[in-house]
Amino acid sequence: MSTTDPTSAATTADADADAVREAVAFVLASTRRRPQTRAELAGKLRSRGVPQPAADAALSTAGSLGAIDDEAFARAWVRDRGLARGYGVARLRLELRRRLVPDHVAEDALRALGDRDECATVTALARERAGRLDPSLPPDVVARRLAAYLVRRGHGPALSQRVSMQVSGADREWD
Fold first, then answer.
1. What residues does each domain of the chain span?
2. Is 50 exceeded by the pLDDT of residue 47?
């Protein structure tokens, strides 16, 4: 027959409540600095040694307060990097995966790029970048550098090469 000391149970409950409060405070402070995904925050709590039940409770509380929203995070990420900065779908998908956004959430957010004219976006990026390159470089060197830049930005190699050849002038006959 086992007896439980009521003061011991109360102390354990207080310790659990304190752990949850501290974890919620950490999550709220962390998300004020920069938006983060639920999985990123769970990893941070785990690395801080927060017990799993307290971490789950803290994440639920922070989510109900609106501090954690993976869907909003992914939409904002795609809007900023995809629409404003011209990143390609491949790079955005990789970045969202690195930020531990669930694949179905990432794919939903990436649908916002569906209406974007990819060729016009890539051409604008290439022209902007070409304007910052040394004008004395031969067109074939400019084309290679532009193609590499565009591929790093997440655009397909074929489109990147075609646009870089056009923008650099490497596709024209030179006297």
1. 8-64, 70-115, 118-168
2. yes
> Torsion angle, CA of 124/128/131/134, rounded to 10 degrees?
-110
In the prediction, which pLDDT does 12 show?
55
Output the six-digit token pair for 145.
């550098």
Residue with tokens 């809007």: 79
Whether the pLDDT of residue 111 is over 80: the answer is yes
Residues 76 and 150: their CA atoms lie apart, in Å, by 22
Whose CA is closest to 109, among 152, 86, 80?
80
What pTM does this model have?
0.77
* Strand residue runs (E) in 50-132: none
* Sequence letter at residue 84: A
